[in-house]
Design brief:
By secondary structure, this protein is an all-alpha fold. 65% of the residues lie in helices and 0% in strands. It has nine helices and no strands. The protein has helices at 9-14, 21-30, 34-44, 48-54, 59-68, 73-92, 97-105, 116-119, 123-137. It is globular. The protein starts with 8 loop residues before the first helix and ends in a 5-residue tail after the last helix.
């Protein structure tokens, strides 16, 4: 088995590889453990309030999920979606997670001053970030 550092963010957060889609979907539908959100927060090194904002989860809802120990399927889906985008950014940065995190946190003019992290709160915003990563990787300047 790969070491923790060799795993993708999706694998670390969800416990399943993105390539194992049926199992990953089952995991999302069952609800990720609350610690998955905390793991994502730790990777980004941002406060609870910021990861909640990025995931569209209010502070009161975060408190309820913490007490319950699990996220709902829609919240789990957003956590995995953000982890997947971060994996794309890490790949864009040639495997440098710290550089990818810094890139995700920095406001981008193309997103009207919003960071890729915050832009990824919705499916359409996530597509914007994925498109930008693709253009950067392919040398198409925006």
């Amino acid at each position: 088995m790969n070491s923790y550092a060799d795993k993708t963010v999706v694998e670390r957060i969800g416990g399943v590889s993105l390539s194992e889609q049926p199992t990953l979907i089952e995991t999302i539908m069952a609800g990720l453990p609350y610690r998955a959100l905390l793991e994502l927060q730790a990777i980004f090194q941002i406060p609870n309030s910021e990861i909640g904002k990025a995931l569209l989860i209010t502070p009161s809802t975060m408190s309820r999920r913490k007490a319950r120990g699990y996220l709902r399927p829609d919240e789990s889906d957003r956590v995995i979606r953000l982890a997947r985008v971060l994996d794309l950014a890490i790949s864009m940065m040639n495997g440098n997670e710290q550089s990818a995190v810094m890139w995700m946190l920095a406001p981008r003019e193309i997103f009207n001053g919003e960071s890729p992290l915050m832009r990824s709160g919705t499916e359409i915003g996530t597509r914007d970030v994925e498109d930008l990563i693709g253009r950067i990787r392919n040398g198409v300047f925006s």
